[in-house]
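FAQ: What does the model actually see?

It sees only this:
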Amino acid sequence: MTPSDSADRVLIVIPTYNELDNLQPITAAVLAAVPQVHILVVDDSSPDGTGALADQLAAADPRIHVLHRHGKEGLGKAYVAGFKWAMARGYDKIFEMDADFSHDPKYLAEMIRQADFYDLVIGSRYVQGGGTTDWTLPRKLISRGGGLYARTVLGIGVQDLTAGFMVWRRHVLEALELDSIGAAGYGFQIEMKYRTVKRGFRVLEIPIAFPDRQVGESKMSSGIFAEALTLVWKLRLGG
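And it is asked to produce this:
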């Protein structure tokens, strides 16, 4: 389906893998907060039945769509698939958003509004007014330290380089050579922001409170974190 007017040109891309308990509540919360948007669930063949539930939700609400992918290939590839789906159907503002309520739908309306003026709007933990809740001290230190390391190596001013709650304008995604981005997890988020800044697009960070997930298991791993640490040097040296 191609959106027919501006009210239908916002798409929230939500990647899922084993998010059965979160999917119905998060889609309901998103649509309650911003009824004009559409949602695309990108499911990587979740063994817990998330994909089947997504199909049921889509059958009941024309604002919900589903993209099934064969096997778990990582967050970055799931988002790229979702972005391509969105661009092929004429959406202009395209979100990244997690299914686990660490990204509160209450921020969506303001992010949509700011995307009228900026090319990328980031829900940021690390600008004034933002923060995290329910995080352990080691997790806070790793996140803060990793962000400082990445900013220093890359030489850019984005405070929350690993943020995963964002809205992109369509023309930015069209310019970023999505097929060449192979990183997953934190690395994907860093690379996308770095390329955006280097191309001169306008970026805004707005403060959000970021709680830990309440249901399900985190997808973060030591391998994904290590990938991010090495990726920043590849990006810097590769220009």
